[in-house]
């Protein structure tokens, strides 16, 4: 009996040790590759003008709701995210602007970080992929502090790395469905002299490469699940001109995990088609985005880096866009654009994420929910 008891004890200890090792292995298991993740992101939407909204009219230290609603959108609710899940969407990009929530030393307000986490959990709890980024900290406005010029880089790259260290540590234990996007549309200059598409001084493209490398290196250094987390880097201003693509360099992953990196561009192409084509999605429009995908395929996809169309939509000059005020026929044209984009993404193993207009303003509230552009939502789901 004593011998039997000892044998059982050893066996139990062995099972326990195996269980611990299995748990350890599960905790440190490599995430799916960026290419595999992106292929699963077949239908996407941006929760725009929400956590990315900012205003100097909002007093420092105000409740998060004051910032979140200062551009007219309501506070985000999990109900809204569930509507997208039920519709057939599988990825939500959550743009976040941080500068109004950082002190002089670059420390992020814990209340703001908690609100970001709450919204991220809305997405993840519904089984969807979530992309969190640094959004209007870049851009053309005077308050953006991350710019594509060498003087800016020297002044701000340590602050940028500190910001990403805080975000990465906070979300370090999250699973593979959470992706980080290093920065939004980084460009040179400020309105009215902001340089879109590509900088006048092409040397500034190298500044974007430096920020991209800092982002990847910083996140990887935080360890945990960030060792294998899929990370997204954007081209200059999210553009895809020949010079912009030629000047962009995918970062070197310090952990050797190049297959956990993806590249993002934005496409409101053909730019201003709502005006030039009188809100009609023409054959010329279709051809232009097909040509774009051919260039992205040659530059990135064939080299193993999947592409995310982080923003696309009907936006044009003077803020003209297809929205709730448009006719059903015009909304169908936006649906045709979305269908073309979704089909091309599927063909190239890419992901398209529509810029916010599918549901806007009071349509987002549970009490008054309706699809602002249901034709677009249905087109995306039907063609994914």
Q: Profile the largest sheet.
A: 8 strands, parallel, barrel
Q: Which ranges are low-confidence, i.e. pLDDT below 50, for 5 or more consecutive residues?
A: 1-26
Name the structural class. Answer: alpha/beta
Helicity range of the residues?
40-55%
Number of strands: 8
Mean pLDDT: 93
Series of secondary-structure elements, N-terminal to C-terminal: HHEHHEHEHEHEHEHHEHEH
- Outline type: globular
Distance between the termini: 64 Å
Keywords:
8 strands, alpha/beta, globular, 384 residues, single chain
Write the layout of secondary structure elements.
Elements: H1 2-28, H2 34-40, E1 44-46, H3 64-68, H4 78-87, E2 91-94, H5 110-125, E3 129-133, H6 150-170, E4 178-181, H7 205-221, E5 231-234, H8 242-247, E6 261-267, H9 273-276, H10 283-299, E7 307-312, H11 328-348, E8 351-354, H12 374-383
Parallel strand pairs: 1-2, 1-8, 2-3, 3-4, 4-5, 5-6, 6-7, 7-8
Helix pairs in contact: 6-7, 10-11, 11-12
């Amino acid at each position: 009996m004593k011998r039997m008891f000892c044998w059982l004890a050893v066996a139990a200890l062995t099972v326990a040790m195996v269980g611990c090792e299995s748990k350890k292995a599960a905790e440190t298991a490599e995430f799916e590759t960026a290419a595999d993740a992106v292929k699963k992101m077949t239908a996407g939407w941006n929760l725009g003008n929400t956590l990315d909204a900012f205003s100097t009219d909002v007093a420092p230290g105000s409740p998060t709701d004051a910032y979140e609603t200062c551009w007219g959108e309501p506070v985000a609710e999990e109900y809204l995210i569930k509507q997208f899940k039920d519709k057939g969407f599988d990825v939500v990009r959550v743009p976040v602007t941080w500068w109004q929530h950082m002190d002089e030393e670059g420390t992020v307000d814990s209340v703001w970080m908690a609100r970001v986490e709450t919204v991220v959990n809305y997405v993840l709890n519904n089984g969807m992929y979530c992309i969190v980024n640094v959004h209007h900290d870049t851009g053309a406005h005077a308050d953006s502090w991350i710019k594509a010029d060498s003087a800016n880089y020297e002044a701000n790259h340590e602050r940028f790395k500190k910001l990403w260290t805080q975000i990465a540590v906070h979300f370090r234990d999250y699973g593979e469905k959470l992706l980080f996007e290093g920065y939004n549309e980084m460009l040179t200059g400020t309105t009215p002299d902001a340089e879109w598409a590509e900088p006048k001084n092409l040397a500034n493209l190298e500044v974007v490469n430096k920020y991209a490398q800092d982002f990847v290196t910083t996140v990887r250094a935080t360890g945990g699940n960030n060792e294998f987390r899929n990370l997204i880097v954007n081209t200059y201003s999210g553009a895809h001109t020949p010079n912009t693509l030629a000047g962009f360099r995918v970062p070197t992953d310090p952990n050797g995990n190049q297959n956990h990196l993806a590249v993002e561009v934005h496409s409101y192409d053909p730019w201003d088609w709502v005006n030039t084509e009188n809100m009609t999605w023409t054959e010329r429009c279709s051809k232009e985005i097909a040509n774009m995908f051919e260039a992205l395929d040659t530059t990135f996809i064939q080299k193993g880096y999947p592409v995310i169309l982080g923003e696309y939509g009907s936006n044009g000059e003077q803020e003209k866009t297809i929205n709730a005020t448009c006719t059903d026929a015009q909304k169908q044209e936006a649906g045709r654009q979305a269908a073309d984009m979704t089909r091309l993404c599927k063909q190239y193993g890419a992901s398209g994420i529509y810029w916010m207009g599918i549901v806007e303003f009071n349509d987002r509230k549970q009490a008054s929910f309706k699809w602002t552009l249901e034709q677009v939502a249905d087109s995306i789901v039907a063609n994914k």
